[in-house]
Amino acid sequence: MAREALVLTGPTATGKTDLSLAVAERLGGEIISMDSRQVYRGMDIGTAKATPAQRARVPHHGLDLVDPDERYSAGRFAADARRWIAAIRGRGHVPILVGGTGFFLRALTRPLFREPALPAERRAALEAFLRRQPTPELSRWLRVLDPAGASAFEHWGGRQRILRALEVVLLTGYPLAWWHEHSPASEPPLEALAFVLDLPRPELYRRIDERVLAMVDAGLVAEVDGLLARGFGPDAPGMSATGYAEMIPFLRGERTLEQAIDDIQRATRRYARRQLTWFRNQLPPGAVWLDATRPPAELVQEIVEQWQAQSAS
Predict the structure, then answer these.
(1) pTM of the predicted model as reported, rounded to 2 decimal places
(2) In 3D, which of 75, 45, 77, 74 has the Cα closest to residue 61?
């Protein structure tokens, strides 16, 4: 079956952005950000968002969609991405999904169930209550209410996924796994050719540490301070992102800058490990793993050749 989209994924700091630009220029592609944090306006440095110069080289979609105090779910991404993919293909271009948010990819390749209708007033009240609770307490509740799904959400999804899972089970009486099993898929699965950039663990950690330092040099502290000044506090969905959550204690005088940098580096390494675990267990069949230490020109050539062979089949 012909492929509908090309996917370039992998842990953070493996070089996805630069490689995707080169591939897009070779194939006549347009890039769709598959990053759950790059959807937030004003969060540019800490999310490694494509720069204006990079966006001028290749059209980008999926950036700067919502403010940091808004939620942006995998289901919403899937709906948006399908529209972007259809429009890109309609222009005769290649849709290239780029990023490391596994749940976004899964929402396309293993479509989500049709979400149950949740009463807006009750949902708003419940969401306000849940957001005031510490994450460990939310995790404890989820283990009681949805024991089958709790492990996956805690390991791969983080606080936002836990909140969503609790909303569904508390407002419908059934956990997410039940809805997945008993509700029809919202869309047919996307036929995608996925490439995964991989690095030896020491090299991955080295790149992560260097990248965090580069972000600080580029103005991460001022970016986080500006968001706080605009009223986006630590409870805002976007502000839970790695790099932002760890910088807030420094700005409050609770940590030194050196400690905050170390906190971000350690949190990013943990996140990269979770990403690798997800990729090894959840990627669609036929995903191609690539050694990201190889010369970029070689990687581009391999991706282009495989895409041209499989998209025409």
Answers:
(1) 0.81
(2) 77
